[in-house]
Write a structure and sequence with these properties.
By secondary structure, the protein is α/β, with parallel strands linked by helices. The protein contains 15 helices and 14 strands. The protein is globular.
Length: 398
């Protein structure tokens, strides 16, 4: 049954260049299962500025992209509403029966211009909100623009939509209290693409892995209060374990040692002592990272309680569990709904070392059991959320 077309617009880079791409692709599959045609309009970092829109097809979806904005002028044009995107939206409105538009973490002014196009054609507009951006560091120009855009988006523009897709209880509560129709979705995956975890070799040391971007080294404030994740806590935990004679490996994907030491120069000595068990791998293609996650015994990351972390959901958690690799993290609001999930181990802040010290004692058979149990849980399979999304779209009137 053809219920019409939903257009998904945002800064995602399909098919799998960033975490945003994984999220919108899974959500698009839900829409498709519910009978909607889905068109994606994202970005492409490999396209040269000024080359305009490009068409491609991924997973059976029609996908368009514009060059990823580079430089202040390109960013200003993008956040004020790229003409190519607005033009394509008007064109699709003529070619297909567009019934809804979803703006993923989209700039406020650009989103308002999209809303105007939607209202003219009686098209429902929805926001997919997964971030509450920080504007406490960077150049003065960056901070001003980011602060204005984020404030407008979160406090006004999203409230003016027909419905909000959120990714955390914090944002769900925030918009529900404003009377908005909401549906809460973590980052989801098609779990059928993941293979059953390999049986662990009894002779290998326990392998931990961190994957992510814990901070932008050029935009960390002096007090270091705007860190997205506390990789430094991981380093300190493993340093203590190393000093106590524990045998393990800890691989870090997403940044280099030099990038880390720009923000935490005091850890140079620790890293030098742990050179035999801790390794920075830098940025790698998602396909390679997935293989390393699947081959690891535990994924690990920690976060502080800030508005940025309260608003978001750690997509790496869903990805790791879906791979069958258990996750070590800390208790946070966005994970309250998932406490008790197979393969998820949570510590209170300050008790991270105690938890990792306990898990590092796991036997190979323990780890094999945990990995298989996590993989079989399928907690983050998009198919589990079709009913919730159907109810949300029905309330919105799509």
């Amino acid at each position: 049954m053809d219920k019409g077309t939903i257009i998904y617009i945002g800064g995602f880079e399909l098919p799998d260049k960033n975490a945003a791409a994984h999220r919108v692709l899974a959500n698009g599959k839900i829409f498709r299962e519910l009978g909607y045609n889905v068109i994606f309009i994202g970005v492409n970092s490999s396209s040269r500025s000024g080359t305009g829109l490009k068409r491609a097809d991924f997973s059976g979806f029609e996908c368009w992209s514009v060059p990823y904005p580079k430089g202040s002028l390109a960013w200003l044009k993008y956040i004020s509403g790229a003409s190519d995107i607005l033009g394509l939206l008007r064109q699709q409105r003529q070619l297909t029966r567009v019934v809804g538009v979803v703006c993923y973490n989209y700039p406020a002014i650009a989103q308002l211009r999209i809303k105007k196009i939607c209202r003219e054609a009686n098209i429902k507009i929805m926001a997919d909100a997964t971030e509450w951006y920080d504007a406490s560091a960077g150049s003065l120009f960056y901070r001003i623009v980011k602060c204005i855009d984020t404030s407008l988006r979160m406090h006004w523009v999203h409230k003016a939509t027909d419905g909000v897709i959120t990714t955390s209880r914090y944002l769900t509560d925030y918009y529900s209290e404003q009377g908005k129709i909401t549906v809460e979705l973590p980052t989801l995956f098609d779990v059928r693409k993941f293979n059953s975890p390999l049986i662990r070799d009894n002779s290998t040391k326990i392998k931990f892995i961190y994957v992510g971007s814990p901070f932008d080294a050029g935009r960390v404030n002096k007090e270091r209060t705007n860190l997205k994740e506390r990789l430094d806590v991981c380093i300190e935990v493993f340093f203590e374990l190393h000093r106590s004679g524990e045998d393990f490996s800890f691989d870090i994907y997403g940044l280099t040692a030099n990038e880390y030491l720009q923000v935490f120069p005091e850890h140079a000595g620790m890293l030098q002592e742990m050179v035999g068990c801790t390794s920075f791998k830098g940025r790698q293609p998602n396909e390679i990272i997935l293989r390393h996650i699947a081959c690891s015994d535990f994924s690990i990351f920690f976060r502080d309680k800030t508005r940025v972390t309260l608003a978001g959901f750690p997509s790496k958690l869903a990805e790791s569990i879906s791979c069958g690799t258990p996750v070590i993290s800390n208790t946070m609001v966005s994970l309250l709904s998932y406490e008790g999930t197979a393969g998820l181990f949570l510590a209170k802040r300050g008790e991270e070392l105690e938890l990792v010290r306990k898990l590092i004692k796991s036997t190979p058979s323990d780890i094999n059991f945990i990995k298989q149990h996590a993989y079989s849980s399928r907690v983050f399979d998009y198919r589990n959320y079709t009913l919730k999304v159907a109810q949300f779209l029905d309330k919105v009137g799509v």
